[in-house]
Design brief:
Length: 337
């Protein structure tokens, strides 16, 4: 059997951690094979687009909404993407839906991607360089080590690779399943990570709702409400994304999605103290691993005696910047091998 020329690194997961690692490795002259189960790169930095017969094009950032940049590396990325016209600052009108409270301090500039949140992934993917190959719609079920080389086996039995090293950046439960046969300590660290799920409702109306906010937080059932039209570059139609609060989402994760979406709209009506008209569009999405509640507390994980690494928001916490920093750290550790 002819074995193809091996990649330097195989990366499982093309969210911000995997993309950051692939870009850094490519910049250091390393070849990378990047695999992701989604149709596009970006993970939870995603956008749902809908063509409505009356409203036309609709756009919903139904996962991550914005990014803040506190570290030097991620600030540099935001500036690079800003110059390219792919991210812009966003200054929404803010409100608290529960007990009145001042807006939390220290958030800094909110960066949003253009024309949707999925551009975080697309922007990084377009900058990977010629030494990186991205394969989407590939669900990895097993990592196999043959001699000094690694292969990823997908759910259809197809092998991808080989590679000299592996970086896994999927959510912790999926990463643990792949890594457990090869390193018990990494698997144990990932087993301690916990997540909050989130039910995301997407609704649009034929006329404006006259809401007193663009971004609202904090009711008993609602974790977040965002007016999509308040973001630069979005369609003008009145469209909302409503994120269920963690406990509420966990309790209703297996309910009918549209019923959950209506329940979130009812909660918004209660918080506003007035009814809402029937939406022209209503849909929902269930994120089982929406936000890390308990992270590992390390930049990345590494096996003691194998070229095997793990990174992602499970390492540092639930922010786009944390995922980026984790992937960057893992890439630098791989280069240092």
């Amino acid at each position: 059997m002819n074995i193809p020329r091996p990649f330097d690194t195989l990366i499982v997961g093309a969210g911000l951690a995997g993309l950051a690692a692939a870009r850094e490795l490519g910049a250091r002259g390393r070849s990378v094979l990047l695999l992701d189960k989604g149709r596009t790169a970006g993970g939870r930095a995603s956008t749902r687009r809908v063509e409505h017969p009356a409203l036309g094009a609709l756009s919903f950032d139904h996962g991550a909404q914005f990014a803040t940049a506190r570290g030097e590396a991620f600030r540099a990325l935001c500036e690079e993407l800003r110059v390219a016209g792919e991210v812009v600052p966003w200054s929404p009108r803010w409100a608290w839906l529960g007990t009145p409270s001042a807006e939390p301090e220290g958030r800094g500039i909110r960066w949003i991607a253009m024309p949707g949140c999925s551009q975080w992934g697309r922007g990084l993917a377009s900058r990977l360089g010629e030494r990186a190959e991205l394969r989407t719609s590939v669900t990895v079920s097993e990592l196999v080590r043959a001699g000094e080389l690694w292969w990823a086996v997908d759910t259809s039995g197809e092998r991808h690779g080989p590679a000299r090293s592996v970086l896994v950046t999927a959510p912790a439960p999926q990463s643990r399943a792949l890594l457990a046969p090869h390193d018990a300590e990494m698997a144990e660290a990932l087993a301690a990570v916990s997540y909050a799920p989130c039910i995301a409702a997407m609704a649009a109306w034929l006329a404006p709702l006259d809401l007193p906010f663009d971004l609202a937080e904090g009711s008993s059932h609602l974790g977040l409400v965002v007016r999509e039209a308040s973001k630069p570059g979005r369609p003008a139609a009145e469209a909302l994304v409503l994120h269920g609060a963690p406990d509420w989402s966990a309790a209703h994760l297996d309910d009918d999605p549209r019923a959950s979406a209506r329940a979130l709209l009812d909660e918004l009506s209660r918080a506003l103290g007035r009814g809402l008209p029937e939406p022209a569009h209503l849909d929902a999405h269930r994120w089982r691993y929406a936000a890390v509640l308990r992270a590992i507390g390390k930049l990345h994980l590494a096996a003691h005696d194998l070229p095997l690494f793990a990174a992602g928001d499970s390492c540092l916490g639930p922010r786009l910047e944390f995922a980026f920093e984790s992937g960057l750290s893992a890439a630098r550790a791989i280069v240092a091998l």
